[in-house]
Specification:
single chain, 2 domains, two-stranded antiparallel sheet, elongated
């Protein structure tokens, strides 16, 4: 017997959906009756779904496709840890940016001598992060 997300201690508060005609007012009403707000994506951002799909592709390619997931709890731990890595330990390569999204904005990345670089292995060595040594 599977537990619902609410029984497991998680509760959704919002559902982000596209503006397809199949999502009628009745669809929104059903979710509103259980306390979930539906938020349609903005009309000016038709590629908004593409960003979510790109993140899902990245997390699969860099992480979950290379691991044996033992169960739902294990997957939650792995995804939580990867999201931390994605937002703080990895630079957006497509933009040729030396900083990750959550890095301090007042820090400018300069080349660091190799002797002052510290390796941090993530996911049992699957991913490596490099930081200046303290």
């Amino acid at each position: 017997m599977k537990a619902t997300s609410e029984e497991a201690g998680a509760r959704f508060t919002c559902l982000i959906r596209d503006r397809d005609a199949k999502f009628t007012a009745a669809f929104d009403t059903v979710y509103a009756s259980i306390g979930i707000r539906t938020l349609p994506i903005t009309p000016q951002a038709p590629r908004m779904n593409a960003y979510a799909e790109r993140f899902a592709r990245t997390i699969r390619a860099e992480c979950t496709d290379r691991m044996l997931i033992a169960g739902e709890q294990h997957l939650r731990v792995i995804l939580s840890d990867y999201i931390g890595h994605y937002n703080t330990g990895r630079s957006p390569r497509a933009m040729a940016w030396p900083c990750a999204p959550d890095d301090a904005p007042d820090v400018i990345a300069f080349p660091v001598p190799a002797a002052r670089i510290q390796l941090r292995a993530r996911f049992a060595g699957l991913i490596s992060e490099y930081r200046p040594a303290a």
